[in-house]
Amino acid sequence: MRSTFPYRIASPIARGILLAALSMGCAPAYSENPRFGIGEAATPELIQAWNIDVRPDGLGLPVGHGTAAEGAALYEAHCESCHGVDGVGGAYGSLVGRLADDNFSFGVDPALKKTIGNYWPYATTIFDYLRRAMPFDAPGSLKTNEVYSLVAYLLAENRVISEDMVMNQSTLPKVRMPAAGRFVPDDRKGGHEVR
User: Fold this and answer.
1) Per residue in 138-161, pLDDT tens?
2) Residues 35-47, buried b or exposed e (16+ Cβ, 10 A)?
3) What is the pTM of this model?
4) Which fold has domain 49-182?
C-alpha cells in the first residue's frame, strides 16, 4: 500500500513516532505557556539599563571624558592580553593599523587586516562597542570615563586624533574616521518602509 504522506520516511519506527506525535499533538500551544518558565517582565528600569546604544551622530553618549594617556594604562590592564602591545598583533586581532594614503585594498590584499584605524567608519561605534562588550571577560564593567579614555587611546594610536585631545560626548562625534567615506548609507525603501 502506498502512503499519501508527502515525504518518504524510510524507517518504520520513525514513521510510527511521527504518526503518534501528529495524532496526539506535538507540543502545547504557545498561548498555554507564553513565557516557557524563563525570563522576567521587561520593566521600564530593565529596559533603561540596556538602552545604551550610541548612534554615529553621538546621540546616546553619556557625560564623561578621557584622554589617550589615561587610556594607555587601561589598555595595558584590560586589552593588551587579547589585542597585543600597543594594539598590534594580538591573538584576537589588531586594533591599531593604518596604511599609507589610507589605502583600503581589502579585496586585493588578503594579508591586510581590518583595524579601527583603517576600517571602522564612526568613532562613536568604538565607544558603543567597548562599553557593552569589553573587556571580554567582564563586558559592561568599564566606567564611562574609562571607556572614553580607551577610545582616546585607540584613536591616538591609529593617528586619528592627537594624543592630547580629550574625548567626551561633544568631541567624539566630531572625529572623522579615515574609512568614513568607504561606506554607503543604507537608504533603501521597500517592504515595510523602514527609512
Assistant:
1) 999 999 999 999 999 999 999 999
2) eeeeeeeeeeeee
3) 0.73
4) Cytochrome Bc1 Complex; Chain D, domain 2 (1.10.760)
